[in-house]
Write a structure and sequence with these properties.
This protein has 8 helices and no strands. By secondary structure, the chain is mainly alpha-helical. The chain is globular, with a radius of gyration of 18 Å.
Length: 208
């Protein structure tokens, strides 16, 4: 059980490392509006992640515990989605372009929070991603306290990492490091997502 949690937690953190929509939202907030605005944005993103996880757990609770056709189809779809985005990350050849800003505007924590919450809540990939992660844990019969711990852990990781990212990106040295390592981060994220996707799909196909 611990090994499975570590795999899910590692995959979740690797997805945070690979620059996505939330990364660029934080980057823009920090560079254009200042650290306080970006911290509010990070808190809004974390809350959106928590709400997505709660929605996913509610939806999963309405499905049979195991063996039902709907549950097997959900697992297979989640596995296929993870394999797809994992393969895309592995094959990506992108370059990360970070803007140079001469002057920082005056933002506010509240506006940053609202902006982060709305932008992240409207990302349709977020609940799909968490459906796959919590589908893995529920398929392994993770008890309720374990699911609650996983949810709290991932919310905290999103908040702490995003706030740390705001501070790191304020230094040109770290921005340069990220630009040079973006492909490596994509590979790590892609490999872990492929492993989870294959595990999900294999569980359905072998068990059917």
């Amino acid at each position: 059980m611990l090994a499975l949690f570590l795999l899910v937690a590692s995959t979740h953190f690797a997805a945070l490392l690979s620059p996505g929509p939330d990364f660029f939202l934080l980057l823009r907030a920090g560079l254009l509006k200042g650290r306080r605005h970006a911290d509010g944005c990070a808190a809004g993103i974390a809350l959106a992640n928590l709400l997505s996880m709660l929605l996913v757990l509610l939806a999963l609770s309405l499905l049979p515990a195991s063996g039902g056709l709907g549950w097997r189809l959900l697992q297979l779809a989640g596995g296929a989605y993870f394999v797809w985005i994992g393969a895309r990350a592995l094959l990506a050849r992108r370059e990360l372009e970070l803007p140079e800003v001469e002057a920082v505007g005056r933002g506010s924590w509240r506006r940053g929070f609202v902006g982060g919450l709305l932008a992240s809540s409207l990302n349709p990939k977020l609940p799909i991603f968490y459906a796959g992660l919590f589908g893995v844990l529920r398929n392994a019969a993770m008890p309720g306290w374990g699911l609650a711990f996983s949810m709290g852990w991932m919310t905290l990781v999103v908040l702490v990492w995003d706030m740390a990212l705001v501070r790191l990106l304020a230094h040109p040295r770290w921005r340069g490091w990220l630009q040079m390592r973006v492909r490596g981060l994509d590979r790590v994220c892609g490999g872990l997502l492929l492993a989870l996707g294959a595990w999900l799909a294999a569980g359905v196909l072998v068990g059917s």
